[in-house]
Design brief:
The complex is a heterodimer of chains A (314) and B (394). Chain A has 314 residues and is mainly alpha-helical. Helix content of chain A is 71%, strand content 3%. Chain A has one domain. Chain A is globular and about 60 Å long. The model of chain A has no long low-confidence stretch (mean pLDDT 88). By secondary structure, chain B is of the alpha/beta class. Chain B folds into two domains: 191 residues, Response regulator (Rossmann fold); 134 residues, Response regulator (Rossmann fold). Chain B contains eleven helices and 14 strands. The longest helix of chain B has 31 residues. Chain B is globular. The mean pLDDT of chain B is 90. Classes of the chains: A mainly alpha (314), B alpha/beta (394).
Amino acid sequence: MDQFIQLTVDGLTLGSVYALIALGYTLVYGVLKLLNFAHGDVFMVGTFVGFGVLQALGGPASPNVPIWLVITLVTLSAMAVCAALGVAIERFAYRPLRDAPRIAPLISALGVSFFLANSMQLLFGATPRNYDLFEYHTGTLYLRGLHIGGVTVPLLRIITIVAAFVLMVILWFLVNKTRTGKAMRATSFDREAAAMMGIDIDRVIVFTFILGSALAGAAGVMFSLRVPTNVSIGFIAGLKGFIAAVIGGIGSIPGAMAGGLILGFLESYIQGYVHGAHIPDGTQWSDLYVFSVLIALMLFRHQGLFGRPDIRKV
Amino acid sequence: MKKAFVFALAVLATSVVAASAQGSQTAAARSLASFNCSKTITLPFVTPLTGGAGFLGTEQMSWAKYAVKTLAPQLGLKVKLVGGDTPVEQGPAPAQTLAQKYIGTPSVLALLGPSTSGAVAASTKAYYAAKLAHISPSATRTDLTKTVGGTYEGTPAFFRDVPGDYIQGPSDANFMINSLHVKKVVIMDFQEPYSLGLAGAVESTLKAKGVTTIRLSAPNTTTDYSAYVTKVPGDADIVFFPTQKPGDAQTFAQQLIEQGKKAKVFGGDGSNDSSQFKQPGSYVSNFAPDITGIAADAKLIAGWKKDNPGKAVGSFGPPSYGAVQIALTAISKACKAGGGSTTRAAVFHTFKKVSIKNWILGGSFKWSTKSNDPLNAKFYIFQIQSNGSYKLVG
């Protein structure tokens, strides 16, 4: 039972981060029908921004302000910088290609991804950065927490999960209960019709990138609170976020949230439970199982769990 | 139509065979092509400069640069050091591409690296065909210089100035048995040649001495080890963690504590970085001692620090200095023997004749007569202290 609780907590922590990344993919795809392959590297930039702000606030061992404020400021800074980065990427790499064939912005996205990774490498070098929050009060964020059965859910994981869910709720509110959110949904449904209705499409798209990139920045910080970061981490994180978005249904916001959590749980339970004499071990082959599930899902429900099937006019 | 198709296939097949023959002729011809030693020699260093192990390559390059700067003038050579990046996440492919590039560069007489065992295994045959000697300061897999279970992945062109895992594995295992008195050890690998070799060496020694071992395997791209930690038994003494990313060793050690496991992490030489892996109580083995404790190296260290302000002396850098010293000494000897010109083949044959009196890692350097490994090399075991420093314990 303890192992199940531990794996569930692991899955929830991982899934929360995947969900935040997936939301960025799905928001942009929903509005622009563009797969923003630079999204993973925006996430990576967020991890570095968070590291820099953490150091500026005195470092993990003896911060200048209370730790809750440190984590809040680190997260908000990463979100702000990544949001600005997202706006810049949209303005210079995607907007000029809005009317070009679909392959053009896709290639541009790949180019931006490599540009970001290499630029960060040039600026900050190859050495990984570790937030080292274990140094805060000799590991209190790791050792204190909620007790469930024989398992302690550490404070750091609780912070990650709660923060991710708060952000998802805020996003849901923005998209469903505000005028700008309504404009986003209209643009996602039919861009031309939305423009004809007087919606400023450029503003909507910029706002979408702000939202998506800010979430990537937040995901970066949530991720790096517990594991080190380096300039090449964006590719894998972006891939996992993309898979989560596809599982949930690319373009669907609830789908991205669900997809992220499902992916997190899948990975965790496969690694924890799948083992036997005649089957590939889950710890060693978790990616094999996850991609097999993805392929099966695509075969039987290609639009994802919450996606809408394509409707074609005849 | 059918005849035309068959004819086209025959022409294509003939072209491929001719091109292959031409290629091997070219490599063989280049190995004997004369090089004027008064010209600038290109010394490539194939090492991970980016990615999770980029810290290793960056450190090694800094020492190699310093070695070229100080030793080349002393040996009467003009040398240009160039870096060839082999990120560990990309597997062996970059090493193979770089091998072709450097084999095709006439001013390359010898080569440093590759730094990782997988990259060596992928490229050494090409270097041997071109009679291009290459020396690694960190590739420790046993079967690169010795036959293991019928497998030999090296060639006579591969040299290393650090001991292999056939020393590291048993050293680490025997330390665990004799000094730590372990009963149960979890052994991880990361599905790549370095960790597989070292994990296997440790596992076989532990099993032979009656220690219970549990084997886990994680993809090389893993960053969060929480699920793996759940599989570590509560009564395990040690988790042997032969990663090439020290930050991952730190993460694993912290996640063990997070889940209330008593096992300590024991890293191999790939996790040797006190700025990243600093969990008190953990262990690290490495092929080099801390050279800041060697009096004869004081001037050398001061010079390196002047060129690298703010950087600390690690364990991967000094063997790189040594590798440059061996390579340039071999080139210099071959040039003198050739009256001012030499060939790759001559440099290759001179490599094994090199010995260094005042070796940067202490004592002197000589080659083993049985392999292209250093004679009487050993591994050192460190325990991480409460202040994050590494204390020699074995």
